[in-house]
């Protein structure tokens, strides 16, 4: 988990040009297709709606990170998705849309997904 956070920070601070995708744009990372569909601020949390497909039974929270206020945050696996679908596992053929819950954000939010040595980032 820390390695993914460090990678996100390295990319954010090393001067390398990183593509930041718009909401809804699908990225292919290894065998997984993923997109961030929405980012919503609610009291005490940041709710990120994602869609994933490509791997049967993978942990749907693994690999997601949020960068805000100069810090990298992992999802809060036991947090209430506030009416959204809780992220559990992914499917091979059927798309799974669910809500990843992060701590409350401190300004601009960038959401990253790390898988198979690749990284994609979305911001609104």
Descriptive overview:
The chain has 124 residues and is mainly beta. The protein has a single domain (2-123), classed as Immunoglobulin-like (Sandwich), CATH 2.60.40.1240. The chain is built from one helix and nine strands. It has one helix spanning 2-13, and strands at 20-21, 27-29, 32-42, 45-53, 64-68, 71-73, 96-103, 110-115, 118-123. The chain has a five-stranded mixed β-sheet with strand order 1-9-8-5-6, covered by helices on one side. Strands 2-3-4-7 form a four-stranded antiparallel β-sheet, with no helix packed on it. β3 (32-42) and β4 (45-53) form a beta hairpin. The chain is globular, with a radius of gyration of 13 Å. Residues 1-6 have low confidence and may be disordered.
Record keyword descriptors for this entry.
globular; Immunoglobulin-like; 9 strands; disordered N terminus; mainly beta; 124 residues
Task: Describe how the helices and strands are arranged.
Blueprint: H1 2-13, E1 20-21, E2 27-29, E3 32-42, E4 45-53, E5 64-68, E6 71-73, E7 96-103, E8 110-115, E9 118-123
Parallel strand pairs: 1-9
Antiparallel strand pairs: 2-3, 3-4, 4-7, 5-6, 5-8, 8-9
